[in-house]
């Protein structure tokens, strides 16, 4: 799957991921109204609304992008109905030939981690049959429990040709509380980055490992260091747009080959129709997905422009 991701980035010329984090408050009124008329103001109604919202955004952007990253929490808050919308979203994105990064941020001990890995990336055995249940292509994983938590994911990835992105330096303001702590002369995120390189060393695709890392766009200097610590790891870079990251901050996350990083924007794309910039282009709630398409093009131009002038 890492090869497919790289191929799709090359084909689209777009090292970006659209984050499908559909908060109900981002879903235009007319979609909510229709869903509530059919299913009531219920978890089922909310799930229908976020699914219709996602579908419109995917339809408007899939030809421009290599990948999507649905954030499971946004679906899980609506219980089983929300999880069905998550599944529909994953399956629909596959129909559109998009790489799906399940932002599930799992991390637990061995046997539990194995169950998460099987459920999201592998196949669960039921009697004589096996089923790919959630069936994402990549998942995000929290490394706090160490090798015991990561190895089950790596084992499933090896078998299924899938991949993971391991949290190394996260984009949020308080990420430094633990991640920047200096241990034996080096910050913890560097130790974790080194471990990601080690875990991924025998998990190589054609040019990159399918054991990747997450490093926030909001910490460009750390991204520069981590790029060197993990030269073969693909870096998923969240924090662009709504959290303040810009193309110019991102150049050092990429290798000289122009690859090695994929930048996520969620609110900046899916809720673009709320921004004045796109309103001024005549976009209203009714054609909200056109704003997402325009925002994807703007994001790609911003990142490509920064890479071209480095
Ligand atoms: O793993 C992630 O994707 C992630 C890691 C991180 O360090 N920071 C971060 O914001 N994310 C996720 O990336 C998305 C960012 O959303 P926006 O800020 O709306 O673009 C959310 O789904 C976050 O959960």
TrEMBL record:
GO terms for molecular function: orotidine-5'-phosphate decarboxylase activity. The active site is at residue 105. It is an enzyme of class 4 (lyase). Its EC number is 4.1.1.23. Gene3D superfamilies: Aldolase class I. It comes from the Bacteria. Residues 15-281 form the Orotidine 5'-phosphate decarboxylase domain. Keywords: Decarboxylase, Lyase, Pyrimidine biosynthesis. It catalyses: orotidine 5'-phosphate + H(+) = UMP + CO2. GO terms for biological process: 'de novo' pyrimidine nucleobase biosynthetic process; 'de novo' UMP biosynthetic process. Coiled coil: none annotated. Pathway: Pyrimidine metabolism; UMP biosynthesis via de novo pathway; UMP from orotate: step 2/2. Belongs to the OMP decarboxylase family. Type 2 subfamily. This is Orotidine 5'-phosphate decarboxylase. It comes from Roseburia porci. The lineage of its organism: Bacteria, Bacillati, Bacillota, Clostridia, Lachnospirales.
